[in-house]
Amino acid sequence: MAKSKKIVVTGARGFIAKHLRNYLSENNIDLISISRNDFKQFKNESMIVSENYDENILLPKIKDSDALIHLVGIGNQSVNNDYNMINVELTKHIVNLCKKTKIKKIVYTSGLGVSSNTSLGYFISKYNAEKIIINSGLNFTIFRPSYIVGKDDHFTKYLKKQIKTGEIKIPGSGNYSIQPIYIDDVIQIISQSAIQPKFKNRIIDLVGPKNITFKQYVKLFSKGTKTNIKKIDLEDAYRDAITNPKSDFGIDDLNILIGDFRGNHEKLRKLTKMKFHSIVELLESGRLL
Ligand SMILES: NC(=O)c1ccc[n+]([C@@H]2O[C@H](COP(=O)([O-])OP(=O)(O)OC[C@H]3O[C@@H](n4cnc5c(N)ncnc54)[C@H](OP(=O)(O)O)[C@@H]3O)[C@@H](O)[C@H]2O)c1
């Protein structure tokens, strides 16, 4: 009988990780999930709680695993948690753990828009994390996702919160586009990539079938609700992001949103041979609300 696969997931309590763990558990994959804090276990899942991803705790538990899916990441900085510490240095630590435990495969979610030409701090940290992984000698798959949407991602939760106030604010013109992809498609792809050889040593845009302007997206999202859509001055949005730690959009949220980043969906479709959910249909059916 074939040996069942053993997969490690970091950042277990995050949005993608929760969906992925549920999916892997349902598909009878042996799962080892790591988080800084306690969390609810799925079946077939072992739990590791370690605030600093302590090597002494992790090494004996994750050794002999087939793959590690690294989902730790931050998109906002603070004095205690900056991009270099979490996106770069922690990735380096995880890569070293893979080498020490002879885990041969690593899957990483970077970001759409990451490139060697980027000047944005967030993207630079993701680029540096990519480089560490590429140069590690491990079999890697790096995904560069656009907005991954479901019912409970940060972006969708933000829009739902705005609907409750009766008004959604659009920074600037709203004519910049996004290329959202559905979480159920994403977890299937990430799961495949941890196991299938065709994903070996590839950097892949994780983007949906269609570009849609933020203005159109918000309109469809709030269809059927009594929500006023209001454009706000971009300068005001940035000032709020800079001066108000509780602002809905962080500086890099705005940079990414208005950056108008586009990815190659066709390449993803050909590689995965999957039929993707249409985000427009999901929005029209109200399934994201
Ligand atoms: N969702 C998207 O649309 C999207 C798009 C592009 C890229 N990505 C990337 O995909 C990855 C996962 O995204 P997500 O949406 O699932 O993010 P998320 O919900 O914010 O989860 C990220 C997880 O990272 C861990 N983490 C955060 N700060 C940490 C710290 N200081 N030390 C150790 N662990 C820390 C946390 O896990 P625990 O609480 O379990 O410790 C957190 O739940 C991230 O790298 C993100 O940049 C996501």
UniProtKB/TrEMBL annotation:
Residues 7-192 form the NAD-dependent epimerase/dehydratase domain. Transmembrane segments: none annotated. One of its GO terms (molecular function) is protein-containing complex binding. InterPro entries: ComplexI_NDUFA9_subunit, Epimerase_deHydtase, NAD(P)-bd_dom_sf. Gene3D superfamilies: NAD(P)-binding Rossmann-like Domain. PANTHER family: NADH DEHYDROGENASE [UBIQUINONE] 1 ALPHA SUBCOMPLEX SUBUNIT 9, MITOCHONDRIAL, NADH-UBIQUINONE OXIDOREDUCTASE 39 KDA SUBUNIT-RELATED. This is NAD-binding protein.
